[in-house]
Amino acid sequence: xxxxSCLCGAIHYRIDVPLGPVTPCHCTQCRKxxxxxxxxxxxxxxxxxxxxxxxxxxxxxxKARRGFCGTCGSYMIWEExxxxxxxxxxxxxxxxxxxxxxxxxxxxxxxxYRCDDGVPCYAQGRSSEEMAP
Length: 133
Ligand SMILES: [Zn+2]
Ligand SMILES: [Zn+2]
Prior knowledge:
Helices cover 5% and strands 37% of the residues.
């Protein structure tokens, strides 16, 4: 079981199914939205017991939106209308038992850091070329 919440606690959730790896996304939208980069793992909406009211920002109208707490601003969920909620790993309570499998949109990352944690860094999506960290 994984539990999580936003910073102020107005939104909290529970997940009782096993989760896959966490994927950090370094695209400009995720950087601006989170203040650094995003790190999320997908779960089916029906497997996410969510309490509280998310606020949504249509970051790619008709294709994807970002759910956050309207009170404290925690970025909690990415949705691209595929039946999945991509839950921000940073909102999860420890221990998660999860780990990162790859970095995506690494070509767009901020110039002030690098991720040399030994997993692939894809320039864009997973089918793109790999980059040196
Ligand atoms: Zn909050
Ligand atoms: Zn992104």
